[in-house]
Amino acid sequence: MSQQINLFNPAFEQRKQALSARGLLQGLGLVLAASAAVVWFGARQVAALERTAADAKVVLDAREARRADVFARFPVPGKDPLIAGALGQAEADRSALLEAGQILQGGALGNTHGYADYFRAFARARVNGLWLTGASIAGAGKEIEIGLQGRVVQADLLPQYISALSRESALQGKSFARLDMATAQLPAQAAVPAPALPGAASAPRFIEFSLQSSAAPASGAGAVKQ
Known about the structure:
Helix content is 43%, strand content 15%. The chain is built from 4 helices and 5 strands. The chain has helices at 21-73, 81-106, 116-124, 157-166; strands at residues 130-138, 145-152, 178-185, 205-212, 224-225. The protein has a 5-stranded antiparallel β-sheet.
């Protein structure tokens, strides 16, 4: 014989909590209050930004007005064609001077210091019994041509003079290609007496010479004659 036993006890059953209408209303009120606070804060922020933008626009408009007033009172002058032309000419002159300076420094024109060094060299290369009656220089640089005319009491003094000239720095690299010599007699009434040899007569004899570096130099170019 079987018997059923009911072990279910309603006291142990989990009960569902049901929200009351009052609780729902309170929750909804909190949500609405929070939303309203967010909307109010956002509105305040937007209003503040709008006021800042309006103030910035006022300041910008004032600055633009001042700028327009300054341009109206002090218009920007246009370019003067005369000044532009003068500046262009000055720049062209400057470029030409720089180019000329580079040419001179590069030595393309040869000697750019004149002929004074040559005449000083002629004066320093002194030999007793020899004197110059004329000197001429033409050209410049490697194309320079030198001519010397003078008198010597003895022929063997001329090589000494040429050797003395070769030791002068201004004449380095220069050589004489032509030598002419002729015997002459100094007149007794000559204004420039020649050094007399021991035992010579009242009208001593001497040798006239002419030294040329190449062809005879052009007249009037650095020439000195006595």
